[in-house]
Amino acid sequence: MTDNLLLSAARNSNYYTPEHEQFRDTVRDFVAREITPHVNAWDEAGEFPRELYRKAAEVGLLGVGYPEEYGGTPADVFYQLIIPEEVARAGCGGVSASLFSHTIGTPPILHAGSDELKARVLPDILAGRKISALCITESGGGSDVASLRTTAVRDGDHYVVNGEKTFITSGMRADWFTVAVRTNPEVKGAGGVSLLLIPGDTPGITRTKLDKMGWWASDTAHLRFENVRVPVGHLLGVENEGFRIIMRNFNSERLFMAAGAYGFAKVCFADALDWARERKTFGLPLVERQVIRHKLVDMAMKIESVRCMIEDLAWRVQQKFGDPRLLVAQTAMLKNLAMQTMQFCADEAVQILGGMGFMRGTRPERIYREVKVNMIGGGSVEIMKDLAAKQLQL
């Protein structure tokens, strides 16, 4: 990124230690070496090499925050926030979405799976040998998780799963699916929902590739489950009590999505500033035009607001500080603020770059077409507002 006071400012030592910064350097070097040179080709190809999972695992990126017994590295939330922020420097959300799909697929396994299941499944995922995906969304449900219709009926020592899931990140090549199912069809709502861990090679699973506006390098699939038999031992948590696990998972996902959006917004600011300094109109650099400087200041103002909210909320979550309802509300509001900031900065960067901003291959162009998936995935802007209002008892 360009040399700029905002982008090179020292990190707050109340949150980040020298060890955090050493880890940031590791992630940054990995992104510069293994991702950035290839993102255009991977975007056009619609995928990235599976080998990238193993490479990311070798430098410790996949196991951050997981116990050592499964091949992970115990770490606080700030280590985990560094990863999406730094990977965003490549300007390709599709790579980040699929490469780290385990960050939403495996927490339910870690927190609610049996010891045997965790020992059998997690080490391969954290080593990059296997891929994990989360399967919640259905065609008619979206953010309304409690209305899901995929069923799991007990048959001896197995569940028989029938239904469909859609918009599943890493859905085409995942080895493990963490799937939300309805185990009690008599209960219409959150009460009858459970989570099952389903091997990707189980008979009866059909995968269909989906084409998207953005995230081209991320494989996204529609899944169909037809009489898929899953061992009872693959139940995560208690039957009919999976909804709470799903909600806990969503809160973590939203925090890390916000960190990624913050990173993408900084990329847009950096590229817009570089262009404004280099591009001349009527004999002067664009940055000498007041209207352009004001655009850049507006971008910087929003970026700084997101940074402050991310760091404060991460500290509160880590310390379990405050009413849990307030933390949920702040997470929802942060996700919206971060996504709207990403949207604003992407739009302004493309505008400042002009025709070049519309060309395939520039970072603002890629980020611009990936804005909407961030404003929808993990809970839409509208749902987040309602969630925050409910938690704040408005």
Protein structure class? alpha+beta
Helix share, percent: 40-55%
Extended strand count: 10
User: In DSSP terms, counting alpha (H) and pi (I) runs of 4 or more, how many helices?
Assistant: 15
Mean pLDDT: 95
Strand order of the largest sheet: 1-4-5-8
Protein name: Acyl-CoA dehydrogenase
Organism: Caldimonas thermodepolymerans
GO cellular component, one term: cytoplasm
Keywords: Carbohydrate metabolism, FAD, Flavoprotein, Glycosidase, Hydrolase, Oxidoreductase, Polysaccharide degradation
If you had to describe this structure to a student in words, what would you say it looks like?
It contains 15 helices and 10 strands. With 394 residues, the protein is of the alpha+beta class. The strands form 3 sheets. The protein has a 4-stranded mixed sheet. Helix 5 crosses helix 10 and helix 12 packs antiparallel against helix 15 (381-391). The protein is globular, with a radius of gyration of 21 Å.
